[in-house]
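are you around this afternoon, could really use another pair of eyes. what follows is a protein written twice so to speak, once as letters and once as structure tokens for the fold. i want to understand how the tokens follow from the sequence so walk me through it. anything you notice is useful, everything is just below.
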Amino acid sequence: MTEISKQIGTRIKAMREISDLSIEDFAKSINLDTDMYLKYEKGEADIPISVLSAISSKYKVEMTALLTGGEPRLSAINVVKKGKGLSVERRKEYKYQDLAFNFINKKAEVFFVIAEPSKEVPKHFYAHTGQEFNYVLEGSIKLIFDGKEYILEEGDSVYSDSGRNHGVMALGDKPAKFLAVVL
């Protein structure tokens, strides 16, 4: 895995140890299989944003701290210029830019997401606490939500219970770009 995955794994391991929890108890606390959690902690697998979100919510730590090791500093306004969001490349089919990475005590995680085109149905589906809003900026996507497929095109949006299984894939030959807000 990448050096970044290993660094994030080291940070979540430290958080688990500070919380004085066993691997099993920590994994259970975020509704994750122990073996999968251990792969994340060792940096042997990419950690989905949904897992990072669950850890940050459960243990009251900013996702930025998990991703970068640094703490957000802004509390009144956080301006992010085009293309300057914190790059978070967790899976090959998605590229994320965290658009609120430097704002402390956020009530939402805000991402600009690029989904690469694929002919394959997503192999990974995600479920995490909270709610999610997605707004398609460019291209079109297929959202698979609880086994049902929805086609969303430029200007379409969806608001959902993110605790249900969901996945996204770009349709066509070009990447799809969308705004994702996780509450």
In short: DSSP finds five helices and nine strands in the chain.
